[in-house]
What we know:
5-stranded antiparallel beta sheet, 3-stranded antiparallel beta sheet, Jelly Rolls
Amino acid sequence: xxxxxxxxxxxxxxxxxxxxxxxxxxxxxxxxxxxxxxxxxxxxxxxxxxxxxxxxxxxxxxxxxxxxxxxxxxxxxxxxxxxxxxxxxxxxxxxxxxxxxxxxxxxxxxxxxxxxxxxxxxxxxxxxxxxxxxxxxxxxxxxxxxxxxxxxxxxxxx
Length: 158
């Protein structure tokens, strides 16, 4: 049995804080070929996840806030926000399920934030994510500004 407690979240979050990407996964699934992927995602504010969708093959994704706060965005094919949610377990806003073929991204709003993620496997480099062509790639100099503007559009101060 793997016990998910404050110590486990603290350890994973500490690794995210010193990671160049400001995030760290802890995978519960044994291999990338596993049919169901389960993981912790520790994320710090300022980390950038390129908006993406899962298709060919189609896959759903679930995010549950264990600690901290997150914004989850859904976009249309042109990059317009069609829906968003703030996840904060302390406020009873626990999670979201992202449908197949929906462009989405998760944004950390608070230091020490940790989400539990569930999605269908297997994972392959070429087919697991279809990145949004209208958003900067991870590592692009424009990613920080894109993220700040996205949060401003929904009234969240970065």
